[in-house]
From TrEMBL:
Keywords of this entry: Acyltransferase, Transferase
InterPro entries: Plipid/glycerol_acylTrfase (IPR002123)
GO molecular function terms noted in the UniProt entry: acyltransferase activity
Organism: Nonomuraea antimicrobica
Organism domain of life: Bacteria
This protein's name: Lysophospholipid acyltransferase family protein
PANTHER family reported for this sequence: 1-ACYL-SN-GLYCEROL-3-PHOSPHATE ACYLTRANSFERASE, POSSIBLE ACYLTRANSFERASE
Amino acid sequence: MSRPTRPSRFWETFAVAMVKPLSRLLVKRDWRNGDRLPKTGGVIIATNHLSWTDPVLLSHFLYNNGRWPVILAKSGLFRVPFLGRAISGLLAIPVDRGSNEAARSLRLSAERLADGCAILFYPEGTCTRDPDLWPMVGKTGAARLALESGAPVIPVAHWGAQELLPYGEKKPRLFPRKTFHVTVGPPVDLSKYAGRSSHADVLREATADIMAAVTEQLAELRGEKAPETPYDPAGR
């Protein structure tokens, strides 16, 4: 029995009615290269993380470009009254960081990819701690998922969400109205890893390639040169 690749009509209508007007109200749009998003089939959308608002703003972008974003959300949110029911209805995947449940979230992601879903993945695992807000060293989950599933990885970079709501702050900066910039790059070439076992070195190399592709797109958006070595919070 096939699983749905989109929410029920009720939950999709509910989410669109909430997100689209809110996104239009909060930010101006600078959307680029949406035609690079595959319109069908399982795909991993790898992106940078700047603010608690960027999942909402990115979801609007992806939806308008023909893909329903399946988001990985903290497992605790699924236990919040109504919110948990809503994000379950929206096909979100629970993630319990730092436990064996992390493997379960990857398994569920692989199942959704096989069904033809678009998984919105933050390889950094959290908002960047780089002082200049460049992408950090990524965790290997997205690379493992890509190599084991064969699904394409599409690098997406964005800029501006941090101006609306900087990481760690609770009150958004509404005025002046910010611009949300987003661009899509070509699929990350992971062909050199085909047929190789998914041991730690391979996963780290593939992850570095994914993060480099995201960083390249962000450098284009910002019109700046990215650092040669990504920030590593574990080795700072």
